[in-house]
Specification:
With 286 residues, the protein is an alpha/beta fold. It folds into three domains: 88 residues, D-Maltodextrin-Binding Protein, domain 2, CATH 3.40.190; 76 residues, Periplasmic binding protein-like II (D-Maltodextrin-Binding Protein, domain 2); 88 residues, ACT domain (Alpha-Beta Plaits, 2-Layer Sandwich), CATH 3.30.70.260. Helix content is 27%, strand content 35%. It contains nine helices and 15 strands. Helix 8 runs antiparallel to helix 9. The protein is elongated.
């Protein structure tokens, strides 16, 4: 008998992370977790086989706290998923748009749907989770209270969708990474690939500039570079980066060698196929 794969996510059933799991792994069993720490712990302990963790959104920026993801979790990225975010305004059966007085959701969701909130004069109420707000609104049964959440949440909690796709920006998209206990590097040349790594530069003048020089001289495209403090220390900075390619590619290998020379710490977190959504990226030419 084939064992069903379990995938941990942060949030309640119906969260956008749950929706990403349904799209990426239709036969998997989603495992809801109260916090990101709980989700990562479920992966580390073996309770879950994978985790679906949001790390950035095209409107709100960084989503999950990178401090929990890297490097302390010691988990590895084995894939990525891009999910267009479509917010639905939902309320208990029998409610009407004209009768809604308040709307509750996660602070990011409320911020991404300002237009409809202003248009109808709803009172926004911040909740900890989009799907959780849908559950609470359903349990309360107050026809003047609505929630903003995913279409999956409306289905799970039996709510009527009063207005579809109420997000302000059509490009609202969240990038998720799939995390596992063990590394699973994609094969070189198998497809467009992404390599993710973390590093700390040595305490030398212009160390970061010199560490980054190898990517320019070797023609490596860096799609993401973020810095964050280590242990709350203003002078200890860790960097997280995504680059195109495989570490065994000649140009990327040279660039990483140069980076390592100027770094006191370096770890590859994942080598995985680029999601097809990346092919839709375009840069406006001035």
């Amino acid at each position: 008998m084939t064992k069903t794969m379990k995938i941990a996510f942060q949030g309640e059933p119906g969260a956008n992370s749950h929706l990403a799991i349904v799209e990426a792994y239709p036969t998997a069993e989603p495992l809801p977790c109260a916090t990101f720490e709980d989700a990562l712990s479920a992966i580390s302990s073996g309770e879950a086989d994978l985790g679906m963790i949001p790390i950035e959104n095209s409107v709100a920026g960084r989503v999950a706290d990178i401090h929990y993801l890297l490097p302390r979790s010691n988990l590895f990225i084995v894939g990525e998923w891009f999910l267009p975010i479509h917010h639905q305004l939902m309320a208990p059966r029998g409610a009407t748009l004209a009768g809604i007085k308040s709307v509750e959701s996660h602070v990011h969701a409320l911020g991404q749907c300002r237009r409809i909130i202003r248009k109808f004069g709803f009172k926004p109420i911040v909740a900890g989770d989009t799907a959780g707000s849908a559950r609470i609104v359903a349990e309360r049964g107050d026809l003047s209270c609505a929630a903003i959440a995913s279409p999956l949440a409306a289905q799970i909690y039996g709510l009527d969708v009063l207005a579809e796709n109420v997000e302000d920006e059509t490009h609202n998209t969240t990038r998720f990474v799939m995390l596992a206990r063990e590394p699973r590097w994609a094969q070189p040349g198998s497809a467009p690939l992404v390599t993710t790594f973390v590093f700390r530069v040595r305490n030398l003048p212009a160390a970061l500039y010199k560490a980054m020089g190898g990517f320019a001289t070797n023609g490596v495209n860096m799609t993401k570079l973020e810095s964050y403090m280590v242990d709350g220390n203003f002078f200890a900075t860790q960097f997280y980066a995504d680059v195109d390619g495989h570490p065994e590619d000649r140009n990327l290998a040279f660039a990483l060698d140069e980076l390592k020379f100027f770094s006191r710490e370096f770890r590859i977190v994942g080598v995985y196929p680029a999601h097809p959504f990346r092919a839709t990226f375009s840069e406006t030419q001035s």
